[in-house]
Specification:
- With about 160 residues, the protein is α+β, with helices and mostly antiparallel strands.
- Helices cover about 15% and strands about 20% of the residues.
- It has helices spanning about 115-120, 125-130, 130-145; strands spanning about 5, 30, 35, 45, 55, 65, 80, 85-90, 105.
- The strands form four sheets. The chain has a three-stranded antiparallel beta sheet with strand order 1-6-5, with no helix packed on it.
- It is globular and about 50 Å long.
């Protein structure tokens, strides 16, 4: 584990962002039915098309940044913002990786096929639950085209 994420600060109509206190929309994380203000240091994790970390959710709902591959001393911690991406925000990537995807839409389903297959096991329970049918269709389509695809590693409770 790299760090545990502090999700205590919910952004709601009753508790909106306070720009005077340094609270800005680009510091928020949309988690299906709730929006949280990311705290330090997780708010400073940058995107990279080939990340070294991702956000994992424990069975009790605690989110934490975990290593996706070896992270070397002094290396910046990065995540792919499109994992659990659920929107139409568009941005130009400047991560500098040789396999940079350049233009992004913050929607998981717009990822290239090889990234869909790679990232499906990393999806958060809320995302899997919200997009269960579409994920099943994507997995079936990728398998039909000969790609190996694992099930999401943490299917949500259906009880």
């Amino acid at each position: 584990m790299v760090l545990e994420i502090d999700d205590r600060r919910l952004v709601t109509e009753d508790q909106p962002l306070d720009p005077a206190a340094g609270e800005h929309e680009h510091h928020c994380d949309w988690l299906g039915d709730r929006v949280v203000l990311m705290q330090e240091p997780e708010r400073y994790i940058n995107h990279r098309c080939e990340p070294n970390a991702y956000v994992d959710t424990t069975p009790d709902g605690t989110r934490r940044v975990v290593a996706y591959r070896q992270i070397w001393p002094g290396e910046e911690i990065t995540c792919d913002y499109c994992i659990d991406g659920d929107g139409d925000t568009v941005w130009r990537c400047s991560c500098g990786h040789p396999d940079c995807r350049q233009d992004h839409t913050a929607d998981f389903f717009n990822l290239p096929d090889h990234k869909l297959a790679e990232y499906i096991p990393l999806l958060s329970p809320w995302f899997v639950q919200r997009h269960r049918q579409r994920l099943e269709e994507v997995r079936r389509d990728l398998r039909d085209r000969g790609m190996e695809v694992q099930d999401p590693s943490r299917p949500p409770d259906t009880a």
